[in-house]
Amino acid sequence: MVEGGVTKADKTEFTECWKTTWKTPYIMKLALSAGIGGLLFGYDTGVISGALLYIRDDFQEVDRKTWLQETIVSTAVAGAIIGAAFGGWINDRFGRKLSILVADVLFFVGAIVMALAPAPWMIIIGRIFVGLGVGMASMTAPLYISEASPARIRGALVSTNGLLITGGQFLSYLINLAFTHAPGTWRWMLGVAGIPAVVQFVLMLSLPESPRWLYRQNKVEEARSILERIYPADEVEDELNALKESVEAEKADEHAIGDSLLEKVRGALSNAVVRRGLYAGVTVQVAQQFSGINTVMYYSPTIVQFAGFASNKTAMALSLITSGLNAVGSIISMTLVDRYGRRRLMIVSMFGIITCLVVLSIVFFQAASHSPKINQFESTHFAINATCPSYLSAPNPASWNCMSCLKAECGFCANGANEYSPGACLALTTDLKGSCREQHRTWFKDGCPSRFGFLAVILLGFYIISYSPGMGTVPWIVNSEIYPLRYRGIGGGMAAVANWVSNLIVSETFLTLTKALGSAGTFLLFAAVCVIGLICIYWFVPETKGLPFEEVEEMLKVGYKPKAFRTRSKGDTGNA
């Protein structure tokens, strides 16, 4: 997925992590307790994809208004942008622990409001609360884990937060599937998120504040007591001294670049090295979102229905494939990113994404072109005035097929003997949907019966395999390495805002685009945007694998150019 950060960790670090946490289980308790925030982050961003199908069944207003569906999905993203900014202030002012507790309250309130919502506007309010929690958790959970972990296993422990995010998304699909036949369906799907929020809240009450934050507040003895529970006794003093040096250097950097956010942003943009770092950092974050990943994660069951699988349960079961592959891809990325490098992995990933999107577009185009024809007798024998009005007034109704019917905002009742044979184009009403199903026929309103449908699901799987190990995690790693130390916080923050805003744009426009351009046209548009993203990554993003921060800074001072466009000089080995 999509949001959150993943700190790189090699095999040695994971082995050391296992040994250390086995000897000191308290470390794992800290990491997993905070990591529940990542699980909630993943769950609440993934659960809406399945819940939306049943919300549409319960509220005709939502079913008829594409913008309302998009708003229900994307308000959580809008809330996350605000939550991340507000969470940063709470982190600095009141500490990491309180920030996590506040996020839990927001998660819980949002889950209860959505579960009890009597109308769509209440679901939207609940999604805003959840989004605020997501924004706070996305930055606070990895920060707390990082600051409360021994340095030698920090990368491995922070990486678990990324796994919990994708694991939370996978769990949301399983929960969705489990409640498909339960009374209340979507209310349970959305309300269940309140349980881990309560669990984390209770656990965090018994855990300490981050030792780094305590030291910054001059609570040295409290910081020492926590370090004594994390490190062996002979290492505590060294760690305390290292913490002192780090905090003093951090405060000196903050003083040098300014105290206010405006001063920090102005200082970053006026620095040529930081600007060039931002070209790379913002490029990869925007490219990540405009690859269309969150159309798949937020609307996966809907896309499966576009491909011709009308059943909500079937759509969610098939969507498990994409969510599961996304979680697996996060693990694969950890083994590849330090072997093959960040730049190469992203470029290969983008080639795979573009190929999948183009082929997916072709599949949807073929599915639309070969959708079942409309049979006039089938359309008129249900009831008086049952036939789609647009079909009756069409100048050439004989040319109509199922896709023509759906574009006219009517429903297609498949042929009872063979759903690929000509069927009925009916007015989009609950009564007619019921009449269609009473005759043991399948009712389609989002996609048409298609022999190409299984290909679309397979291609979604290949898309995730292409995306997750490369564009899924590497942009966050690049942003942790590309900025000079004193500007790392503000640079990473600006790139993260670019990521969230891009996420909001994509999630708020996807269904509108599918109505205007069709599924084929929408995926082709994403492929075209990915081509632009690939060119920008090739041109602006250097390889940072294995380079000390000082070398990255020196490289950006002279300005990065791809190897093929450099002026060769003696001893220039460069990065490909």
Automatic annotation (TrEMBL):
<feature type="transmembrane region" description="Helical">
    <location>
        <begin position="98"/>
        <end position="117"/>
    </location>
</feature>
<feature type="transmembrane region" description="Helical">
    <location>
        <begin position="523"/>
        <end position="541"/>
    </location>
</feature>
<keyword id="KW-0812">Transmembrane</keyword>
<comment type="similarity">
    <text>Belongs to the major facilitator superfamily. Sugar transporter (TC 2.A.1.1) family.</text>
</comment>
<feature type="transmembrane region" description="Helical">
    <location>
        <begin position="123"/>
        <end position="145"/>
    </location>
</feature>
<feature type="transmembrane region" description="Helical">
    <location>
        <begin position="452"/>
        <end position="470"/>
    </location>
</feature>
<feature type="transmembrane region" description="Helical">
    <location>
        <begin position="67"/>
        <end position="86"/>
    </location>
</feature>
<keyword id="KW-0472">Membrane</keyword>
<feature type="transmembrane region" description="Helical">
    <location>
        <begin position="157"/>
        <end position="179"/>
    </location>
</feature>
<dbReference type="InterPro" id="IPR003663">
    <property type="entry name" value="Sugar/inositol_transpt"/>
</dbReference>
<feature type="transmembrane region" description="Helical">
    <location>
        <begin position="315"/>
        <end position="333"/>
    </location>
</feature>
<dbReference type="GO" id="GO:0005886">
    <property type="term" value="C:plasma membrane"/>
</dbReference>
<dbReference type="Pfam" id="PF00083">
    <property type="entry name" value="Sugar_tr"/>
</dbReference>
<dbReference type="GO" id="GO:0016740">
    <property type="term" value="F:transferase activity"/>
</dbReference>
<dbReference type="InterPro" id="IPR005829">
    <property type="entry name" value="Sugar_transporter_CS"/>
</dbReference>
<dbReference type="GO" id="GO:0015798">
    <property type="term" value="P:myo-inositol transport"/>
</dbReference>
<feature type="transmembrane region" description="Helical">
    <location>
        <begin position="345"/>
        <end position="365"/>
    </location>
</feature>
<keyword id="KW-1133">Transmembrane helix</keyword>
<dbReference type="InterPro" id="IPR005828">
    <property type="entry name" value="MFS_sugar_transport-like"/>
</dbReference>
<keyword id="KW-0769">Symport</keyword>
<keyword id="KW-0813">Transport</keyword>
<dbReference type="InterPro" id="IPR001917">
    <property type="entry name" value="Aminotrans_II_pyridoxalP_BS"/>
</dbReference>
<dbReference type="InterPro" id="IPR036259">
    <property type="entry name" value="MFS_trans_sf"/>
</dbReference>
<dbReference type="InterPro" id="IPR020846">
    <property type="entry name" value="MFS_dom"/>
</dbReference>
<feature type="domain" description="Major facilitator superfamily (MFS) profile">
    <location>
        <begin position="30"/>
        <end position="545"/>
    </location>
</feature>
<dbReference type="GO" id="GO:0005366">
    <property type="term" value="F:myo-inositol:proton symporter activity"/>
</dbReference>
<feature type="transmembrane region" description="Helical">
    <location>
        <begin position="30"/>
        <end position="55"/>
    </location>
</feature>
<dbReference type="GO" id="GO:0016020">
    <property type="term" value="C:membrane"/>
</dbReference>
<protein>
    <submittedName>
        <fullName>Inositol transporter 4</fullName>
    </submittedName>
</protein>
<dbReference type="GO" id="GO:0055085">
    <property type="term" value="P:transmembrane transport"/>
</dbReference>
<feature type="transmembrane region" description="Helical">
    <location>
        <begin position="490"/>
        <end position="511"/>
    </location>
</feature>
<feature type="transmembrane region" description="Helical">
    <location>
        <begin position="185"/>
        <end position="207"/>
    </location>
</feature>
<dbReference type="InterPro" id="IPR050814">
    <property type="entry name" value="Myo-inositol_Transporter"/>
</dbReference>
